[in-house]
Amino acid sequence: MGEKAVAVGKSVYFAAFGCRSARPVALAFRWLETAMAYRYLVVALGLMLTAAPNLWAQTTENNPLARVKGLKCTFPVYSDAKWKNGVVLPEIRQAQLSLDIDEIDTDSGTARVTGSTGPVHVTALLTVSSLHFMERSVTGTLNVTTVFASEPGAKTLRAVHARHDYLPMSIPGFVSEPTVSQHYGTCDAAM
Fold it and tell me: What is the Cα–Cα distance from 72 to 97, expressed in whole angstroms?
């Protein structure tokens, strides 16, 4: 009975518009169904965006590292790699690297890192779950230290320090290769 009702409805529709074929009417019905589907999709997306803005806009407000003003970091283990004739030779080593990071201002994106070569002003970037410090030099060196957020109130935090350096040089018997390393350790936070 449902099929007859549809057929009757379409026949009436055909007669009202003077159509002899079902094809134009079928295309019109498809267009109406597609248009309705798009309307429902737009309404659903609109409701999702207005009802749950926090799902889309993650902020750094809840990152406990936003309140950190200083860090004392130690990295007892590192990995490095050297290229010899185009072949990568990775190694894991033990050596102590210490960094003091102070004058951290995540609002202006600045900090000061003191290591074995003295203090250097760096870029500080606070993200949803970490705090990055980037040191760049005109010779192409890039050092990045990342401190990972932990539960609020934690004083010891996991951290990684990566060094990337390459100064092209070729003298008889020696050709320089890129120098890279990644150091693994922890940082103690000062609020």
Answer: 11
Determine the Cα–Cα distance for residues 82 and 60; give it in Å rounded to an integer: 37
Helix axes 2-17, 23-51, angle to 10 degrees: 110
Q: Picking from 40-49, 89-98, 103-112, which range would have the lowest pLDDT averaged per residue?
A: 40-49
Q: Pairing mode, if any, of strands 118-126 and 110-115?
A: antiparallel
Report pLDDT digits (tens) over 94-120. Answer: 999 999 999 999 999 999 999 888 899
Q: What are phi and psi of 22, to 5 degrees?
A: -80, -15
How many CB atoms within 10 Å of residue 135? Answer: 17
Per the confidence metrics, is the pTM higher than 0.85? no
Lowest mean pLDDT among 10-24, 79-93, 157-171, 172-186: 10-24
Residue 49 has which token pair?
A: 């965006």
Q: DSSP assignment of 116-158, as one string?
A: TTEEEEEEEEE-SSEEEEEEE-TTS-EEEEEEE--STT-SEEE
Decide if 183 contacts 78 (C-beta within 8 A). yes
> Which phi and psi angles does 6 have, rounded to 5°?
-65, -45
Place of tokens 């760049």: 136
